[in-house]
């Protein structure tokens, strides 16, 4: 017997009648029964997977539907030949939920990438600080280089921060020279 195709808006199922007496006696309307079983099974199987899995593994999902529908419809005298997912129409609230999930995943990945960059930057800064600490005058040269870079642009205002210890040392030296000159 030739395969019979029962169509719906979402799923196409190809099957053939292998035992006509069972197909007529086991169910009232096997066309309708297999169609409803396929639709219900598709909703259940699709509901168990995430959107990206659904989009990436349509063939595997169609095979799963074929197994379930084929297992039940065999007792009706039918053999399921093929199942194709033609169109999957998702309710609006499910689309919004899936979009929120996808956005959360993107934000999670962005946060992870950003934090990995921060770790690398911190490690590099620590290496630079260790190198400068080992070389006398390196920090002073780096400061002078930074001031030079900033001063090349006329629109910048340079604020030179001097540690209070240096100011106290200069003040102490000034007091020392004043007392010495008296």
Automatic annotation (TrEMBL):
Q: Which residues form the Band domain?
A: 11-118
Q: What is the top-level taxon of the source organism?
A: Bacteria
- InterPro entries in the record, alphabetically? Band-7_stomatin-like, Band_7, Band_7/SPFH_dom_sf, Stomatin_HflK_fam
Annotated Gene Ontology cellular component terms:
plasma membrane; side of membrane
Any matching Pfam family: Band_7
Instruction: Give the similarity note.
Output: Belongs to the band 7/mec-2 family.
Name this protein carries in UniProt: SPFH domain / Band 7 family protein
Q: State the organism's lineage.
A: Bacteria, Candidatus Woeseibacteriota
């Amino acid at each position: 017997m030739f395969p019979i195709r029962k169509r719906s808006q979402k799923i196409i199922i190809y099957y053939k009648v292998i035992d006509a007496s069972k197909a007529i006696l086991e169910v009232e309307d096997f066309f309708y029964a297999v169609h409803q079983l396929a639709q219900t099974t598709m909703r259940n199987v699709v509901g168990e997977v995430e959107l990206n899995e659904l989009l990436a593994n349509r063939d595997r999902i169609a095979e799963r539907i074929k197994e379930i529908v084929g297992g039940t419809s065999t007792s009706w005298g039918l053999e399921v030949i093929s199942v194709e997912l033609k169109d999957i129409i998702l309710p609006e609230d499910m689309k919004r939920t899936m979009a929120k999930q996808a956005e959360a995943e993107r934000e999670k990945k962005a946060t992870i990438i950003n934090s990995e960059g921060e770790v690398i930057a911190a490690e590099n800064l620590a290496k630079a600080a260790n190198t400068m600490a080992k070389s006398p005058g390196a920090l002073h040269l780096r400061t002078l280089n930074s001031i030079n870079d900033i001063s090349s642009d006329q629109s910048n205002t340079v604020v030179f921060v001097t540690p209070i210890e240096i100011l106290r040392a200069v003040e102490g030296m000034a007091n020392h020279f004043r007392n010495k000159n008296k």
